[in-house]
Structures are given as C-alpha cells and as structure tokens.
From TrEMBL, chain A:
Compositional bias ranges of the Low complexity kind: 30-45
Key word Magnesium present: no
Superkingdom assignment: Bacteria
Protein name according to UniProt: Extracellular solute-binding protein
Keyword flag Ribonucleoprotein: no
Location of the region described as Disordered in the Swiss-Prot/TrEMBL record: 26-56
UniProtKB keywords: Signal
Signal peptide extent: 1-24
Pfam families assigned: SBP_bac_8
Matching InterPro entries: Bact_solute-bd_prot1, SBP
C-alpha cells in the first residue's frame, strides 16, 4: 500500500510537471513564430478587409497615459461596445516601464491587440513582424463615417506618421496633435514687470534673470529623464540645423531630415566635434542653466509642482496641461506661448522669426500582428476608426481631455486655441544623429547632465558625444540596408 | 529488506524529480543559456536572427569605461556592506543577546524585525522622497534648523554626495537577515564557556573578541557569502534613487547589465556582463570559503 501510494504520488507529480512544460512549449510555439517583415503588412490588408469579424470580439489595449485620461478611455470603450458589440479591455502600464514591458510582451508573444504609445519609431517592431502596416486599410470605408478612413484626417497628419522608406508604411495612427509650449505665470510676470512672454532665447534669459532676482525660479525644468529639457533641445536643434537643410535632406528630399539622412550626414563628416551647431547648443544650455531650479538634473516632476505652486516663472509643458490644470483645480494664473526660439541676436545660427511648424503626429496607436493572427484585425481597425470618428471617439477625446484633434470637423476647446494658433506650414528639422541606438541616446543624455553639472567643459561634452558617432552610424547603416546609404557613400 | 529499501529510495527519487526538473528548467538552463547568449550579437533589431560573434561582447564590455568604472563604485558599496553594515548587525545582535530574555529585549527584537516586513521598494521610495531637493524631508529639516548652507541636491550634486546618500540609505542599517542570523548564533552559544572566561578574569571585550565572535564564525561565513552574492548583483537602489547618475557616477555592474539588456535591448552585452559577474561571485565565494576554512 505504502509502495503504491509512493508510486501514485510520483506519477501525479511527474504528470503535473510534464503538463506544465508542455503548456509552456505550446505557448512558445504559438508566440515565437512571426510573419516575415514583408508579409506582416500585406497579409493584414488582405485578411482584414476580406473577412470582417461578424462575432463580437474582446480586444486588449495597453497604454501608459496618466490617471487623468482613464475615465475618458473607459467611457470611449463603453461607447464603442454600444455601437459595435466589441469589448475593449484597457490595461495601464506606467510610462517609465512601458517600452521595456512592450518588448518583453512581444518577445513572449503575449502582447495586447492594440498598443497605444511606445517608441515613436516603430520600424523595428514592423521588421520583427510584431505590428501591421495600416496603409492598406486607410482607403477602406470606416463604418462610422461611411467614407474612406484616410479622409477623416487633417491634412499632413498621416504624412508625418509615415515611414517613407519604400514601400511607404504606416505603423500606427496619430490620435492627437501634441505640442510643447512655454507656460508662464502671469502673476509673477506682472510683479517683475514683464509685459509679454519671451519670444526669443535672448528675451527668455532676460525674463528668467528678473524672476530669479525677485526670488522665483526663473525656468523650472527637469533633466533626470530625456524629456522636458529635451523638448527645448528639439526646438533648438530645429533652428541650428535649418540652414543646412538642403545638404542634409538628400535622400527623401521632403523637407525633413530622417534618421537615414543623419547617418549619411555623419559619414559625410557633417556632424563632428567642430560643428558650430553642437557648440551653440552647448552654449545655450549653459547660459540658461543658472535659471533652472536647483537639482534639475535629478528632479522629475518637481519642475511642474514648482510651477503649479507659483514658485517658478516659466516651465515647458505639453498641450495636455490645460486639461490637467482644470481637473486638478490649479490656482496658478498661467499663460501659454510658443517655446522661445533661437534668435539672431543671440546666435549667428539663429532665425529671424519663430517658425510655425506643421503639426503632425506619430504612429501612436498600433495594431499588433497577434491581433491579426487571432482574427481580431477588423475589430481592432474599427476601434481605431471609432477613435478617429469626428462624431465618436475623437470628439470625446477633445471634449474630455482637451486633445487637439487629428481629424476634421471638430471644434477644439478654447483653452488649447493659443496652441493651435502657433501651427503653421514650416517643417521642423529634427536631429537624430545621437539617436541611432538607445545606448547612444543615453550616453548623450548622461554627458549633457555632466556638462550642466560643470563636470565637463563644453569641448569635453561635445568630444564625448561625437567620438562614437561613426560607430553608431555604421551600425545603423548596416542594420538598415533598405536606407541605401552605403550606395550613396560609395557614389560620393 | 534490501528490495524494500531500494523501492523506497526509488519513490523518494521520483518525488524529488519534479523539483529537480524545475530547478533545471528555471535555474540551471537559464544560466547556460546566458552563457550561450553572451557569445551572440542579439538585440531587438535582429531578435529572430542573432549572430554568433565569439568573444566580441566580452571585448566590448572590458573596453567600456562605464563597465570598468562601475566596479570602482561597486567596491565602495560592497566594502560598506561587508564592513560597516555587517559590523553594526553583529554589534546589535550581541547587545540584544546580552539583554537576555527580558521583556525589554523582546520589545527591541520586535522593533528591529518589524521594518523587515516593509517591502524594499517602499523603503527605497521613502528615501527618494527624503532626499528630494525641493520638498524633501532632509532639506526641509536642515532649513528648519537654520542650516540652509548644508542643503544639497543629495542624489545629484556630486559623486561623493550621491554615493554618500546611497550609503546612508537604511540608517541605522540594522534591519536585515544578517542581524537575525547573528542573534540566533549568539543565543546558541554555550553559556558555560563565557562563564569560565569571566571567572578567569576576562573582560567583556575579551569575551566578545576572543570567545563569542570566533564561535559565531559559521554565521559570519554564511552572511559574508550572502552579502557578497547580493552585493555584487545589486542595482535596485541605484536604479530607483539615481538611475546610475549623475552621469555614470553611481552606476554599478548590475545596473550596467540591466541597462544593456533591458533599456538598450543588447541581450548579448547584458549576458556577457552577467557571466562576468557570475564568475566574480564564484571566485569570491571560493576564496571566502577557503579563507574561513583556514581560520576555523
């Protein structure tokens, strides 16, 4: 009896182990196989349009937007269910961990059907066969507008989210026009006698000094993560490199400078330790740093609380701030203005006036290849189409969250009108020569921290970030043969 | 009798089999897999087509100043944890042992043990708020005491300040499994040995240094190995409090590994760093065991 019990117990344990292992193996098999990059988009378009889902589906969507947006998303999911019968389960993941979470989910094959956010450049996701190309679906009719989906969008929005490397691809759809602006405290400005918000870097330095002299933080910012000060940097780079646009925009010739064109620029010796653009960038940051809040290199959201508490004269924030201020009953009397631009008075490389940029969006909400494999593509497309329906989700997002709409026919809230007034027709030159690899971006960011902490001189800072430029450019060129950069270098 | 014993052994082995399978699957296999991955160029771009690159990842990390410098930073943390933290834990354990079984001793024990149930993440976040430059408790306290000139950006002003702040985290550093192990060690000592020494005229210090401390050598050996293993792998506090900064000033090898594997998507480099740490830990453990054996 004793012997039989032992054998029986052992058999149960063994079978449990085996079953656990076999489940794991099956899961891996399902998730590990992915469509080839070239087939990911095309198969999506064929199956998606040919076999719409008749049965109600349950979709999962993962996002990282803060708490303020959750009720609006839930409301939208309910409205979508009412209209289509499809259920959307929303899952929040904190922004700081979001990209790592997504990578892990993709690798494990347990990703959600729809992903909101993630890296702005989703080309590697597409290459791995993790997401679908949405372009083939843009000409299909939306069940909500009864017109081609493409027609809903404001002109230029889809273009700015497009990967132009042939064949053109749309990895996701933009759902809002996000901009960053200067927010200034009107009370402090009155106190220090500043009649208007600063329009230029020269004026910004003057006003920030006045505010500091009056006992306020001139310009609150954070540099412990690569946003916020990075927003200012993006604007500065736009001015610094604009004069060389013609020499840089040689592959796509579309008025923008893509990562492929920056790789070519590095190989052509256009970005070096002697580049005046880099030296001017370092100079602006150093001149501004005395007016930043103490500890800006390690601070995170303190920059915002300093502004909200009326202790800081100016801060940079996104177009979402008016809604947050309203929801949190903030008492700070603030005004909104464009980011002060790099002017000719301050720098030879500066501009004569503020460029009013075309506002685009990035491939923000993507549909995973897993959703397609699971037969949920049509439901997922419907969800995205509902999101961009001027009478449905898009209106709800605008009303509830003050998002600047990406689709036509919606009146934006008056609070964000000053932001919309800054939109124009200029194309912003982005600077991606330090963004070929995440590791390289991090090294740039760390060197900038050390420079602003006075641990590196300007020359050492620039020397540090440029010494590995060629290595990273070479790796990017090798990893992306479709850019055709090697041929261009050889031709040169 | 013999066949019955054989059957019982078989049954015991069969019962242990699932455990062995799980250990193999979740502990042994990943270790060998990490060694294999350390020879590959494997990142998100080529996730499905990793490339064999031999020792290239190892060459890269040993030519990387951040990785090399991270060991200097680690040495500071490890030295602190091995000497100061262990020393204080031994001392605290001994003092509580001397209190005997009084009610007060019981209260002190509970007071030291309660903080152990607070998750490490929570206490680390508390220290983050404590050091926060604008509204943090430390700077506020200094302000209240009229010591404004002492106020600092504790986690970012300089390497010295940042490392110092990280070392001060957890003050008075008694909470921890080490303290319990030492206390249990002292409590298991034979009282008669101490009493004989006392009768021979040994002072309190002599009893502690010459008798009690040598008798808890097995516990010291165990905690030293545990601190070495955990210490060399550490990166949590640095990740949460300073992100390895300012610059790379508080980056330890564990954080270098984490950043490469999970932030930069360089699984080969991350694995090479992991294998290097594994070898270092193994070496230290063997040396430590030999040293302790010779002492015993």
């Amino acid at each position: 009896m004793k012997r039989q019990s032992f054998i029986l117990l052992s058999a149960i344990c063994l079978s449990l182990t085996m079953s656990a292992c076999s489940n794991s193996a099956n899961n891996n098999q399902t998730s590990g196989v992915s469509p080839s990059p070239s087939s990911a988009g095309t198969s999506a378009s064929q199956e998606g349009s040919a076999s719409p889902d008749a049965e109600p589906q349950t979709l999962t969507m993962v996002y990282s937007q803060g708490e303020f947006s959750w009720p609006a998303y839930e409301k939208m999911a309910e409205a979508f269910k009412e209209k289509t019968g499809h259920t959307v389960k929303l899952q929040y993941v904190p922004a700081a961990e979001f990209d790592k979470y997504l990578d892990a989910q993709f690798i494990a094959g347990t990703e959600a059907d729809i992903i909101m956010g993630g890296p702005s450049d989703k080309s590697s996701w597409f290459k791995n066969g993790w997401i679908v190309n949405l372009y083939p679906h843009m000409d299909e009719a939306s069940r909500f507008t009864n017109a081609a989906w493409r027609d809903s969008f404001v002109d230029g929005v889809l273009e700015s989210a497009t990967d132009k490397t042939p064949p053109e691809k749309l990895y996701g759809i933009p759902i809002q026009l996000t901009t960053v602006n200067l927010y200034y405290n009107k009370t402090i400005f009155n106190e220090i006698g500043a009649a208007e918000p600063p329009k230029t870097i020269t004026e910004l330095l003057e006003v920030a000094k006045k505010a500091e002299d009056a006992g306020y933080v001139g310009f609150s910012i954070q540099n412990s993560m690569d946003w916020n000060l990075g927003w200012l940097a993006t604007d500065l780079w736009g001015y610094l490199w604009k004069p060389k646009l013609e020499q840089l925009d040689v592959i796509n010739q579309d008025g923008y400078v893509g990562t492929d064109e920056w790789a070519l620029a590095v190989k052509k010796g256009m970005v070096t330790k002697d580049s005046p653009e880099l030296k001017e960038y370092a100079r602006v940051l150093k001149d501004l740093s005395p007016y930043f809040n103490e500890g800006f290199n390690t601070a995170s959201w303190e920059f915002e609380s300093l502004f909200n508490d009326g202790k800081s004269a100016m801060a940079l924030n996104g177009s979402w701030y008016p809604n947050q201020a309203l929801q949190n009953n903030l008492t700070v009397d603030y005004g909104i203005a464009p980011i002060p631009y790099l002017d000719k008075t301050y720098s030879q490389l500066g501009g004569e006036e503020r460029y009013n940029y075309i506002m685009g969006g990035e491939a923000y909400v993507a549909i995973t290849a897993k959703a397609e494999k699971d037969g949920k593509l049509q439901a997922a497309l419907d969800w995205l189409r509902f999101w961009t329906d001027p009478n449905g989700g898009a209106k709800m997002m605008t009303d509830e969250l003050f998002l600047i709409p990406v689709v036509k026919g919606i009146q934006a809230p008056e609070q964000v009108q000053p932001i919309i007034d800054t939109f124009g027709t200029e194309k912003q030159v982005s600077f991606n020569a330090f963004k070929f690899e995440p590791e390289q971006s991090d090294a740039f960011f760390k060197a900038q921290q050390q420079y602003l902490d006075n641990k590196l001189t300007a020359d050492a800072f620039i020397g540090d970030i440029t010494k590995t430029l060629e290595k990273y450019a070479d790796a990017a060129i090798k990893a992306n043969p479709e850019w055709g950069v090697e041929a261009l270098i050889e031709r040169k | 009798m013999k066949p019955l014993r054989l059957m019982e052994s078989r049954a015991a082995y069969l019962c242990l089999l699932p455990t062995f399978l799980f250990v193999g699957l979740f502990l042994v296999y990943p270790t060998f897999e990490a060694i294999r991955i350390s020879f590959l160029d494997w990142n998100l771009r080529n996730y499905y087509h990793p490339e064999f690159v031999g020792l290239s990842n190892y060459r890269e990390i040993f030519n990387n100043d951040v990785f090399i410098d991270s060991f200097r930073v680690l040495a500071i943390f490890l030295g602190w944890q091995l000497v100061i933290l262990q020393g204080i834990s031994v001392l605290a354990g001994y003092l509580i042992y001397l209190l005997g079984t009084s009610r007060f001793a019981g209260f002190i024990k509970v007071a030291f043990i309660i903080p152990m149930v607070i998750p490490g993440m929570v206490s680390t976040l508390f220290w983050l708020f404590f050091y926060e430059p604008t509204n943090g408790m430390l700077n506020m306290l200094l302000g209240q005491l009229g010591l404004e000139s002492w106020q600092k950006v504790w986690l970012g002003a300089s390497q010295t300040t940042a490392i110092g702040s990280l070392l001060m985290k957890g003050f008075p550093w008694i909470s921890g499994i080490g303290f319990l192990i030492y206390l249990a060690g002292f409590q298991s000592l034979d009282e008669s040995v101490r009493e004989s020494a006392r009768m021979d005229g040994a002072s309190g210090w002599t009893v502690f240094w010459r008798i009690d401390l040598p008798l808890i050598l097995p516990q010291l050996k165990l905690t030293t190995i545990l601190v070495l293993i955990g210490g060399i792998q550490q990166y949590g506090d640095q990740y949460i409090l300073t992100k390895g900064g300012p610059g790379y000033d508080t980056t330890v090898p564990g954080l270098f590994l984490f950043n490469n594997a999970f932030n930069y998507g360089k699984l080969g480099i991350g694995s090479a760093a992991g294998v290097t740490l594994f070898l270092i830990i193994a070496l230290f453990t063997v040396l430590n065991l030999r040293f302790m054996k010779s002492r015993t």
